[in-house]
Amino acid sequence: MSLVGHEEAWREWRAAMGSARMHHAWILAGTRGVGKGHFAMAAARDSGTAALSGKVAQFLPGPMGGIEGLLLEDGTEVHISPMQSTELALIVRPGDKVTIPSAVNTVELGIVAGAKSSNAPALPTVNAVDAPQPDIAHNSDRSADHASCGPLCDCACTTNQRRVGGRGGAGRGRQSEYGKQMLEKQKAMPNLTETALESFGAAVVEDFTWKQLLDTDACTMCGRCTSVCPAHATGKPLDPREIVLKTGEVMAASAPHGSVTPPLSVDKEITISANSLFDRITAEEIWSCTSCRACDEICPVNIEILDKILDMRRYLSLMESNFPSELGNAYRAMENQGNPWGMNQGERGDWANGLDVQVVDPGEAFSAEYLYWVGCAGSFDDKNKKVTQAMAKLLKRAGIDVAILGPSEMCTGDSARRSGNEYLFQMLAMPNIEMLNGMGVKKIIAQCPHCFNTLKNEYPQLGGTYEVVHHTQLLESLIANGKLDVSQASLEERLTYHDSCYLGRHNDVYLAPRKVVGSIKGIEVVEMQRNGTKGMCCGAGGARMWMEENIGVKVNDERAVEAISTGATRVATACPFCYIMLDDGVKAAGKDEGEVKVADIAIHLLDAIEAGERRLHNPGSNVIEPVAGE
Questions:
Q1: Residue 389 and residue 310 in contact, taking contact as beta carbons nearer than 8 Å
Q2: What element of type H or E holds 11?
Q3: Strands 125-127 and 370-373: what pairing?
Q4: Strands 402-404 and 467-470
Q5: Which uninterrupted H or E stretch holds 616?
Q6: 411 and 422 in contact (C-beta within 8 Å)?
Q7: Mean pLDDT, to the nearest integer, of 304-316?
Q8: Stretch (H or E) spanning 416
Q9: pLDDT at 256
Q10: What is the spatial distance between Cα 577 and Cα 556, in angstroms, rounded to a whole number?
Q11: Positive or negative, the Cα torsion across 545, 201, 197, 272?
């Protein structure tokens, strides 16, 4: 393996990696800049496959935003997959000549040749030649928009934090066939109305991807994931660390070659008779998860625990119908009525009665600037109807051209996918996408973070790509550019904001809601002890909204106590599920609305604007501030 001409670059690479283990470093970093260029690591293990040779035309983006492999100038795709850990890796640049012989000593990463060879692992060596560096802009700001970065950037911008089924997208730029297959197996299930697959989800070790299995070795057993899990903190059976360690135990016990060591020593009394994950992991653990992603967020080695849980949920839901009985009611309601509340679709637009809101026919071309995707809660739940009405009034004040679908809007399918019922998710999503594409919808305002996440990050998997904005993001923008006048908005109260998991950890939206409430004069904004990336879940995510909570303390009750402890008289939410759960929790703690008012940010903002206007027209009067929308 020759590094002639690149010794210095190699030393820089090693310095950049520090003391991290190389196979972990690749997963964490994907690519890493050396000097001004972006490089991919290439290596492999012994193999008897035919040699390949050619110049690198470009990198192939992987499903998690990193580098999946190389595209040679003759069209051959060379794919990177992890094999055995060692001290050696190589640096490849576009324009370098790559020679992949039939056998070379084992190194740190494996390469699988895709388009022109079999799937057997092939072994590379690299004869690097000087080549022009690709001109790829780099953005080091984690919260920055990806627009200023190149399609294969290795920065920590918002877009590169996305993950399918979790935060969203499927990488950037050209996606190889191998990458599409890997992405489909890993997160985005195939079309269940057409597939010939006979099993779905994960029941045995082999059902997991290599990355999911590698996670069991990457785990440092630090317990950070367990420390932030809301289910574990409130006495539920789930322990995120145990999910990883138990998977490793099953893999070690059932490995056909017997050379896989378990993450930790295993008690002799624990016997694992097969490769079934459910030999060690119970259904109760899997269904306790709220899908808040706190475990994934805090993990120091980027282990994705939620994906494993959702894959196992898919198996339990689709293959065994082993799910809480009350969840079955939500499934039937989504299938028959098009919403988990089981309400008549004809009533979906009733909240707009008396308001100047345009309802569009899906058979006509869409002419408004924005489609307001109200969501099921905003259409049917009495609390959240007030949020929808408040938002409609704010949009009218700002002069935004918006329309709704009314009875033609159906559930996005978030609860179905989060609970593992991929078939039902696709049954809901595909007609929605067909309708939106047929109308020519381009921009969507989503009131619910669960709808926001699904429309923005998951519908593109099925052919629905739109510019989706959460209502708090739009409000922030309208206030910033002066379209929404908040000059008179005033509330002399203390307010605390609760971070929605699907707005925050799943989509990195933390500042927009805070800027909206921060624009209100006289208001004192205080943070709860657990906020931002470490915020605590309300307990309704992961389809837990539709399941009973019979074990331990209710998650929403614990979060409500934390909100009350701040001394706030108002609690702001940005999610309909959070609104319901926290309002119930505050009332369970003995606080009525006169003491602590829980409401969506749109309601608080409209309250402040209308209160300020009343004071302006009636100076010195003792104004009683109603809940907006009433």
A1: no
A2: helix 7-17
A3: unpaired
A4: unpaired
A5: helix 601-617
A6: no
A7: 95
A8: helix 414-418
A9: 73
A10: 10
A11: negative
Instruction: Identify the CA nearest to 55 among candidates 36, 71, 39.
Output: 71
Determine if residue 221 is left, alpha or beta; phi over 0 gives left, psi from -120 to 50 gives alpha, anything else beta: left
Backbone angles phi, psi at 237, to 5 degrees: -70, -20
Residue with tokens 């004069």: 521
Token pair 């943070």 is found at 527
pLDDT at 44 over 90: no
Q: Rounded distance, CA 96 to CA 476, Å?
A: 47
Across 320-437, where does the E strand assignment appear?
358-359, 370-373, 402-404
User: How does the average pLDDT of the chain come out, rounded?
Assistant: 76
H or E stretch at 201: none
Reported residue count of the chain is 630
Q: What is the DSSP annotation of 555-588?
A: HHHHHHHHHHTTT-SEEEESSHHHHHHHHHHHHH
Which pLDDT tens digit goes with each residue over 548-568?
A: 999 999 999 999 999 999 999
pLDDT bracket for residue 9 (50, 70, 90): very low
Higher-confidence position of 273 and 557: 557
**Amino acid of residue 470:** H
Whole-angstrom distance, CA of residue 570 vs CA of residue 564: 9
pTM given for the model? 0.71
For β-strands 90-92 and 97-100, DSSP reports them as: unpaired
Residue 174 has pLDDT above 90, yes or no: no
Residue corresponding to tokens 């903002």:
605
Which segments within 434-561 are labelled E, that is strand?
443-446, 467-470, 494-497, 524-526
